Amino acid sequence: MSSLKRICILALFLMVSVWSYADKIKVACIGNSVTYGYLLPEREINAYPSQLQKMLGDEYEVGNFGKSGATLLNKGHRPYMQQQEYKDAIAFGGDIAIIHLGLNDTDPRNWPNYSEDFEKDYYALIDSIKEANPKCKVWICRMSPITDKHWRFKSGTRDWYRQIQTHIEDIAKIKGVGLIDLQAPLYDLPNLLPDALHPDTTGAKIIAETVYSAITGNYGGLKMSPVYSDNMVLQHNIPLEIKGIANIGDEVTVKIAGEKYQTKCGENGKWCVTIKPLKAGTGYTLSVSTKDKSLTYANVAAGEVWLCSGQSNMAFMIWEGATAKEDVENATNSNIRLFNMKPAHETNDVEWDVTFLDSLNRMDYYKPTEWQICNKETVNSFSAIAYHFGRVLADSLDIPVGLICNAIGGSAAESWISREIIEEKIPDILKDWTKNDMVQDWVRGRAERNCNKSSVAGQRHPYEPTYLYAVNQPIIGGFTVKGIIWYQGESNAHNIELHEQLFPMVIESWRKQQNNPDMPFYFVQLSSINRPSWCNFRNSQRIMSETLHNVGMAVSSDKGDVTNVHPIHKKEIGERLARVALNKSYGMNDIIPSGPMFKCVTFGNGAAFPSFEYGKGLHAADGGEIIGFEIAGEDKIFYPAKAEVKKDKLKVWSKEVKEPQYIRYGWQPYTEANLVNKEGLPASTFKN
């Protein structure tokens, strides 16, 4: 081959290479140490821009212009716009720019002093990128999380971080640039942020996937939550949001009840339509479609949907109960639909295998399930309390009832609270939780036993604070329910004062998730068992039932067991919860919702005279002598007392106490107290 020919071939090769290089879409990843890949092994391979490059392929060229410690603020301790990485990014002239800055601005050297410059400095950065390439499409990012383990979390970082996120959202709107949320996909995965700030390789991959979807518009096509299936029940009689995922810009069509609704999928891959209120009934078909995919759900019902949650006494199944044979025999009812969420492994006293432990770290805990018609086969393993609650509602309302059960044995209240609320109100409970006295010792011990084979730092467990709330969100998070019934507290009974903080936070979490501050929340008061703290705990629950908004309580102490934390009489408890709901949520005022509830007490003539709400027809459950009362004088030493009803008024006295000042009832961990009203409903434990 002649020299001239070789030169021509080489020149052609170089020209093709240059053309190929020039045709690539340039992506400039601008940011701080998270973008740089600080602490990652083989940073050049594992940093999120490198992983993004692999996802985007050869048509793109991704540049990593991250600078550890960089601030967005130009008066901050390390302004990004004064770094070499900024100059390199400008010279790169990206067609796309992804900006992830703000984490270091939470430093006390920065935000308290210069926060008012944040918008101005961010505008300047965006403008300079646009000046370098006027066609550049810019996305700015809601920051990836800073977790409670950060040493400055409570001293300012938590609050300044939230303020900066709000500023970033406003800047995106004002400047008309894209907004990528890097907080949401990592927020409930603190195990992927080992130093409370920098993601590990898996966390960096999640960031890369999030950025990839924003750039390409590809969110995997049309997807619905697993709670959408054949036989489901949709909440009737209210405008209802139907939500899902699709690719950016996809036209989504929803059809139901002869109506057609359309919307375009937004920039975050999410879509939502609000459908007209459905009439209660069965035989609906719901279809959801895009140009590429169609999903159809048959035999859909519209009615009342209730979430049934808590720990093992809510999970307690029909077949285990005292009335199991009768319940199963009479269970077939097409108006009752069951969505039975079962964990892949129960939290029994065993060591879990490494494969399952890994799935917990990936927030994969519940078995796949779908809505089922209630019959002999499907009801057998369903919650006994939830079933009997739903049975009474279906009979009384004569409409379909949908029951979602997600209860987990042994779980503590803190596991069912959102991370946002925990971080705001009681972040100390997150600290090294398996060694933390704020978590009941039994709960910690069982978690350590289950996770004994794990060698992973930050191993997740269902009992971990916030875990169960978070793992439920992808399944039922966007599904509208009427209300919640709840049976839990056994795993918090050691610390009544702490539970009095946690329980309202459980309610607040689910009401925020439902965007319904008035959502009914009805719970079961702990039963009777020989555990010393339980009478005090029951009284605390009684007080909360009276002081918290739209909350109701069913008493269960008369159906307890002296040694068994799982009493088998569940039918009555489900029916009592249904009474509360029918009265408070469905306006059936003729239905008495509760047994006698203590209001006040007067003293005189050597006796106590307690007054009760729902106190008509007071008598002993067995028709004999009323037992369970104690009274005390100024010294607060209590003595067993006699009680009798005269003209519907209760008198309580003891020959040991001449001038009583205090009264209590059912004040034994396992109590045989027997006061009921005319409906035969039991009185709650109380003291004045």
- Strand composition percent: 15-25%
Give the rounded overall mean pLDDT.
Answer: 96
Give the % helix: 25-40%
Global geometry: globular
CATH topology of the largest domain: Rossmann fold
Give the CATH superfamily of the largest domain. Answer: SGNH hydrolase
- Main sheet? 11 strands, mixed
Total of domains: 3
Under the CATH scheme, which architecture of the largest domain would be assigned?
3-Layer(aba) Sandwich
> Assembly state here?
single chain
- List segments where confidence is low: pLDDT < 50 over at least 5 consecutive residues: 4-20
Q: How far is the first residue's CA from the last residue's CA?
A: 107 Å
Strand runs, count: 28
